[in-house]
Amino acid sequence: MSNDTSTEISWGVLDQDTVTALVDSKGADALAQNIDALSPSPSERADTLVDLAINGRIPKLKIEAGQLAEWAAEFGALRIENALIELDRVLSSEKRGEAIMQAQALTRFIARCIDSDVKALKASILSQG
Question: Considering the entire predicted model, what is its pTM?
Answer without folding.
Answer: 0.86
